[in-house]
Design brief:
This protein is of the alpha/beta class. The protein is built from eight helices and six strands; from the N terminus they run ββαβαβαβαβαααα. Helix content is 41%, strand content 9%. Strands 4-3-5-6 form a four-stranded parallel β-sheet, sandwiched between helices. α2 crosses α6 and α6 packs across α8. The relative contact order is 0.17.
């Protein structure tokens, strides 16, 4: 049973229907323009996590709602934790799960700036495959193509067609008016790590939210679920 951002499963539910694999959504708390909430990435990670957990009978954990959003620091409301803190959270969760017999963890990342998640997963898999990171860049590209999105992941970086579509489908109540005419492109962002988002957008938007729809959001989640199957196979069989 799942509702909203938090799973409502009980301890008895988990004991009676155990899974060897848990799913940990990781988001961020950062600006997404005027029409999407600060919690957008946490909501997206939740939407993907609940879909794959349901489709593959996995143990879904509550979302980590704050990530590494330092490139958004100049925008009001943005809150970040350090990369070392996020690294420790994921490893602590994995260790706690292992003590209860759940030895595999899927980290579902909803924020592109959580770069260190690649490192924590890579490090965890030395010797034995214990973690997976999903979706990676190739999954986003494939899912966007399958869902019929008109933009690429690069041009549609932030609060654009993809993110807005997922929220229109799964959490429509949080989407405010204004995305229909908020398009802004900044395809050359080579100094993003040095100068932050403010150097490339005053609105906080980089992408084409005007192309978003709930139907595209539904197709994106369906595509992600299909693409996840291969990740789960690698996690469980190698």
């Amino acid at each position: 049973m799942m509702t909203g951002m938090l799973p409502t499963t009980s301890s008895y539910d988990i004991a009676e229907n155990p899974s060897d694999t848990a799913v940990l959504p990781v988001g961020s708390f950062e600006q997404h323009g005027r029409y999407l909430p600060l919690a957008t990435d946490a909501l997206i990670a939740t939407a993907i996590s609940e879909r794959i957990a349901e489709d593959y009978q996995l143990f879904r954990l509550p979302v980590v709602p704050i990530g590494c959003s330092h490139e958004h620091a100049e925008f009001a409301g943005t809150v970040s934790i350090s990369a070392t803190t996020l690294f420790a959270i994921v490893n602590d969760v994995a260790s706690s799960l292992a003590r209860s017999g759940v030895r595999r963890l899927v980290v579902v990342n909803g924020h592109g700036g959580n770069y260190m998640l690649s490192n924590v997963v890579q490090e965890a898999n030395v010797g034995t495959v214990r973690m997976a990171l999903f979706p990676v860049a190739g999954d986003w590209e494939d899912a966007r193509a399958e869902a019929g999105l008109e933009t690429s992941a690069h041009e549609d970086m932030h609060a654009g067609e993809g993110e807005t579509s997922i929220l229109l489908h799964r959490f429509p109540d949080v989407v405010r008016p204004g995305f229909e005419d908020a398009d802004h492109l900044a395809n050359d962002r080579r100094h993003l790590l040095s100068e932050g988002m403010r150097a490339y957008t005053t609105s906080g938007i980089i992408g084409r939210p005007s192309r978003a729809s709930a139907e595209k959001g539904e197709r994106l989640l369906t595509a992600f679920s299909r693409l996840f199957k291969e990740h789960l196979t690698v996690l469980r069989e190698r």
